[in-house]
Amino acid sequence: MASSSPLVSRPIRGAELEAQAALAANTSLGPITTLPPETLGEIFIHSRNESLKAPNPKSCPLLLTRVCRRWRTVALSTPALWGLLFLDLNTMLENAALVELHDEWLSRARCTPLIVILRDASRVWEVSDSIESLVQKILRSSHLWEHVEFTVDLTLAGLLLPTGIGNTFPLLETLAIDAPDRVDINRLRISIGDAPDLYAVPVSPFDPQIQLPWSQLTIFQSAKIDIPSCLKVLQNIPCLLLGYFGIQNDSSCRSKPMVQHTHGHLRQLILTSGDRRDAVEEDSVPMPFLRHLITPALEDLILSFSVSVCPETPPQNESTLLSFLSQPSTQLHSLRLSFMPTTTARLVECLQAAPSLRHFELTPTGHTADMDILFIQLTGQSDFLPHLESLHVDLEHWDDSDTFVTASIVVEMLCWRWDPPAGIEIAQLESFEIVKASKMRMLDSDPEVLRLREEGMVIVLE
């Protein structure tokens, strides 16, 4: 799971830079010295360096305690300034003093809501008593957890096993747990019962025994999950708005009876292949999952296949996607396909079943790399993607990408989509991007491209 979770926000560095300058110059801070402590404390909170992976005296919040006595007093009396705990067990094993500093950090946070990011020590089997004591103290502070991210390997798993992850969590909003295959996540005993504010849970691999307040979740993510578990999750989370599933190909699932499931609230669905070995399977993951799903509210669909980009990989049957897009209730606004194992002609057939599309992104395989077929279809066909507003094609995986697209065909398509003939009612293509097609860069000086850009179309040629 990408640690692209909503657990940390972008830091605001203004106060930190000012503190560094003041400390270096040892000069007066001017009008800021007249601010009330409460106001100064709020400024300090916004200066918190949330990208910090270990306490650093040259960065906030520790830096704020070194500027002057007043700033130190305000910083130490502002618990929210210390509410972000990023603990890397590897780093703490290399520097024992960090354990004591983290302990003091946690004490300074007092009763403020906590953001806890805990990374495992993958290189060792045992930890010191002080590290174990700190981890247990963090677990005992679960009533203050607001956003939590655990990367669990064997070391941390051993520390969690005696107690598991379970208690009352009155402030918890997001819980992310990522474990490698060698960790039996079932043994961690994850049981989140009383967490009235919990709405987002990324967990990988998926543990069928995990206990969550399913009915209140709106975001769920698992990078390793089989199809029956996906369907079970959808059944358990009736209010799910965003689902991210890394589908693992389990041949035993094919013999299991699975009924079609209708989910009335799902807005965004991201399906990826959870195992690169699925590339050799006849029915490519994540296609089979779509067979069992009806999503009338779905607006954004992302399908990412782990199919090898070599041309020898055989194209697959796209009928599952075609059937899914052809459902009367399907009204997609955005579709992103990466390495879908089909031909360009079959891809066009699928797109014909999705006239509501406004945004389309494609990273092709060797079979769909002939973009001329798609661009020709987009020219002169008013019933093909009539609402399309943006188109993005990424050819960065192809050394000979110039053979897959013709500049003159692209220009003709752009002109037609920007200013269609009288009587043709289609949306105006507002944005076009094609990546890693070197001949396309020559179009930067094309008169028609210059005109389109001047009139407002966003054209990116890389």
Question: How would you describe this protein?
Answer:
This protein has 14 helices and 18 strands. The chain is globular and about 70 Å long. The chain is an alpha/beta fold and 462 residues long. Helix 5 runs parallel beside helix 6 and helix 11 packs parallel to helix 12. Among the domains are: 82 residues, no CATH class; 135 residues, no CATH class; 94 residues, no CATH class. It has a 14-stranded parallel β-sheet with strand order 1-2-3-5-7-8-9-11-13-14-15-16-17-18. The chain has a two-stranded parallel ribbon with strand order 4-6. The N terminus is likely disordered. This is F-box domain-containing protein.
The main pleated sheet reads as: 14 strands, parallel
Spatial ordering of strands, largest sheet: 1-2-3-5-7-8-9-11-13-14-15-16-17-18
| Average pLDDT number | 83
- DSSP, total strands: 18
Low-confidence stretches: 1-12, 276-283
Strand proportion: 15-25%
Overall outline: globular
Radius of gyration: 27 Å
Number of helices: 14
Structural class designation = alpha/beta
N-C termini distance: 29 Å
Tell me roughly what share of residues is in helical segments: 25-40%
Structure summary:
Mean pLDDT is 83; it is low at 1-12 and 276-283. The chain contains 14 helices and 18 strands. The protein is globular and about 70 Å long.
Task: List descriptors.
18 strands; single chain; 14-stranded parallel sheet; two-stranded parallel ribbon; 462 residues; disordered N terminus; alpha/beta
